[in-house]
Amino acid sequence: MDAHAAHGHAEDHAHPTPGLYLRIAIILFVLTALEVAAFEVGRNAGAPLHALIEPIVVEILLVLSAAKFALVAMFYMHLKQDSKIFTNFFVWPLVIAAGVILALIILHEYWIKTTF
Amino acid sequence: MATAVAADAGHVDEHHYTATGLDNRKLAIWAFIGSECLFFASLISTYLVYKGKSLVGPYPHAESQCMLHGEMQACEAIFEIPLVTFGTAVLLFSSFFVVLALYGAQKGNRRMLLGWLSATVLCGLFFVGMQVYEFYHFLHKGLGYTTNLFGSTFYTLTGFHGSHVTLGVIWLITMLVLALRGKLPPEKSLNLELAALYWHFVDVVWIVIFPVVYLMR
Q1: pTM (2 decimals)?
Q2: Which B residues in the span 90-149 are in contact with A, Cβ-Cβ below 8 Å?
Q3: Amino acid B65: pLDDT
Q4: Are strands B64-68 and B71-75 parallel, antiparallel or unpaired?
Q5: Which chain A residues have a beta carbon less than 8 Å from that of B96?
Q6: What's the complex ipTM?
């Protein structure tokens, strides 16, 4: 297989249109607004839904953040259309990164409990 | 015929295909982005590990007693969420603008390329300016790099992100200059795609930093 033929199979996928890019931008803006709204409701005891939101505000922020992250990676970074090799180059380090964060937090909490 | 062959050979050289059929520069930027994920993971985990463990103020979300102008004083909470939210929105929209610029580059639409790429650069400059203002403001409020654990981890994490944004702005300005000189035709749009991928990466890192640092109390 020559380089051009391989290139044609691997990379010549149609990228999204400006219309789709705009829809993604609006969704990202709305998700950011929801993040800030969750933060404000969580910290203001007098706000409506405070009792409901306050205990799960971290979980809400993590889910909204993950959704924004996935939208940018899939559509703006074109991982949805491009070769799966690029997805692997990005996703596996992300999995390791998440593991590093989790491991360090657990180790540090364990160290504090056993030391003090 | 000879010219066509030479042009085709030049085209092949320009794209540097690998055995996978993928351009090696695009593989390289993805490998770099993957390694950057681990770099920022270490900074984010350090911030989280030391979150809430500062012994003296100023604190991010609560009032405290802190050393200000040489004496202990009451210090207000340090974060200004509206400003950072606006900066976050600007950075998100800059990602939208750069994909439109790339679309213009791939379609040979010079006006679209120049317009959206300029908008992206302006957004990037605004974000860097916002961060410089924020750092200066925090220093004025008594939060130095060695004031407490929060200060050290906050400045390290957001400072490294800011330096990445600054590099991204420089890269995008380089692309803008090339585009203005007519040296970014559709067959060379991969050059802009690589810069755009890096720019999206600094955006997704901020998508994580914004809630973790500013919104989680």
Answers
A1: 0.88
A2: 92-93, 95-96, 98-100, 103, 106
A3: 82
A4: antiparallel
A5: 21-22, 24-25, 28, 76
A6: 0.87
